[in-house]
Amino acid sequence: MRHPFLISLCIAGVSVLPACEKNSDADVKRAIESVNVIDESNLNDVMLTVADPNESVAYFQKTVAQYPDRIDLKRGLAKSLVRAKKPTEAAIAWRAVIDSAEGTNEDRVALADALIRANDWKKAEAELAQIPPTHETYDRYRIEAMVADANKKWSKADSFYETAVGLTTRPSGVLNNWGYSKLTRGDFAGAEKLFSEALTYDRSSFTTKNNLVLARSAQRKYDMPIVPMTQQERAELLYTAGLTAIKHGDVTIGQGLLEDAVETSPRYFDQAARALETLNASVTKG
C-alpha cells in the first residue's frame, strides 16, 4: 500500500527538480553579477589611489569607451587625468561630466580645480561663479581662496581659507596655502604661525617645513624650528636659511648655516657645497 505513495513522491520530486535548477541558475547569475560590480568598484578605487597614474588614465579611457553612459567612469577618467598631471585634458573630461544630465555642483568645483592646475584662472573663476552659495564644501572654499589670492583680494582670501579650515579634519594643505599667501604679502609672522599650525596636522610635509624656515628667516630667525625632521631635511632647511641670510646681507651667518648644511647631510650635499664655494670665492675677491 505504500508503493503508490512512494511513486507519487518520486514523480513529484522529478517535476520539482528542473524548477529548482532554474532558480539555482538565476541565483548564481545574480551572485556573479554582484561580485563583478564589487570587483569593478574596488578596481576603480585602486586605480584612483595606488595605481600608476598613467595606467589609471589608460584603464578609465578604455572603460569609458566600453560604457560611454556611465557617469562614474567619466568621473574616474577626469580624476585620473588630474593624478597624471594632465590638467588640460582633465578639464575637458570634467566638462563632459558637467554637460551630462548627471553633472553636479561638486563636479563643477572639480572642473575649477583642474582649470587652476592648467593655469586658466579666469575660466576657473567663471565656473565658481555658477555654483550657488548654498553649496558649502571644503574643496569649494579652498579653491575660492586660491582664486581670491590670485586676484589679490586678501580679505576675501583670508575669509575663504578660514572657512575651508573649518570644513575639514585634515587642514594641513589649506593651512600651508594660506601661510604661503601671507608669505607673499610680506606678513611673515602670520605666515610662520600658519605653517607651524599646518605641521601639527602633518609633520611629514617637507614643503611646509621649508616654508616655515623661509618665514622665520625673513624675520631674521635663522635657528631651526622645533619640528621633527630627518638629517637630510635638516641639511636642506639649513641651506634654505643660509641662502635667505645671505640675501638679507647677513653673510657671516649665512656662511655658517651653509657649512652646517654640508656637515649635517648624510651624504655630500652638493648644492650647499657649491653655494659655500661661491660665497668663499666672492669674499676672497672682495
UniProtKB/TrEMBL annotation:
Checking InterPro entries in the record gives: TPR-like_helical_dom_sf (IPR011990)
The lineage's top-level taxon is Bacteria
Which SUPFAM superfamilies did the record assign? TPR-like (SSF48452)
Protein name per its UniProtKB record:
Flp pilus assembly protein TadD, contains TPR repeats
